[in-house]
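ingest -> validate -> predict -> emit
validate: passed (alphabet ok, no gaps, 380 aa)
predict: started
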Amino acid sequence: MVATTITTSKNDNEVSPETLKSEYDRASEVKAFDETKAGVKGLVDAGVTQIPRIFHRLPNEQFHESSVPEGDPRFSIPVIDLIGVSDDSVRRKEIVERVREASETWGFFQIVNHGIPLSVMKEMKEGVRRFFEQDTKVKKQFYTRDAKKSMAYNSNFDLYRAPSTNWRDSFSCRLAPDAPNPQDLPEVCRDILLEYSKQVMKLGVLLFELLSEALGLNPNHLNEMDCTEGLVTVGHYYPGCPQPELTMGTSQHTDGGFLTVVQQDHIGGLQVLYNNRWIDIRYEPGALVVNIGDLLQLITNDRFKSGEHRVLANRIGPRISIANFFLTSFLPTKKLYGPIKELLSEDNPPKYKETTVRDYIAFFNDKGLDGTSALPHFKI
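emit:
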């Protein structure tokens, strides 16, 4: 799915790239920000009232919040109840049909009764909070841009490539197929990271079964393609922003992996682009957000859609979210992924070249969150 560019009329908050270039040295300011190793939270702790220019959103990034009337069912992502999914065949068929419809249209859905205890979800959210709110000296030990590290904390993975910097800090942790050495993980969230990853992996296996069935394939098809082999958990921390109208929490993008499972908190701000409108993904207590990634769109030959989404900045904070990415880009595997042959026909020829997960994610990361999709680059 090619990214949709929405243009808006210029206003006082929008700054052209030419003006940005002439008025300040972005590269130097980005480097100076990075070298503090304190992230966006460091700016907030220092009491900034005006956000640095590097955070100003792009001129063509539509800011306004969802204009859809609250409660309009036509513009609410599906909430799918997984109760009975493993022991009631009739119920499972209903769930598979809802998963199929959501994956083909929205690329997003929420799930409830998913099996992960509320206590585990709550502790994971608190673990992320503890990490970012611990003493900066302790936190800085994990600050790195070395992609080989199994645990890495920084602000904006694409800081040196993206055209604008997002108002958030993150840590990422590789948790499967090889569990990290516990001593390499932050003490404040070590135990919950390991427990949460086990729970999410179990859920991921089920989700890929449902997605396989939604494609008319054997339930084990996607799991046997190793879609659940790799898991990376990312903890996002979005501090309250003094000028949220000038920046983004996360710029418009699609996810590069196969599937993403997200826990968001009550503050909200996550939006999906649907029929050319930004739709709020409302917080549902106990629910998890599931979204299709680029690689799943690629192997389903555009049957499932990798939904474009973003996160608005907010005066209220911190907003905390945990994103779990099913992908294997950090593994040395040379396995090729292309459109699944069982889904192809004369009327539905392959639309994408075969690629390794590593090559796809490398292109995705090099491009950064620039408001466009990486998928067109891999089209035949």
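The first strand starts at residue 79 and ends at 81.
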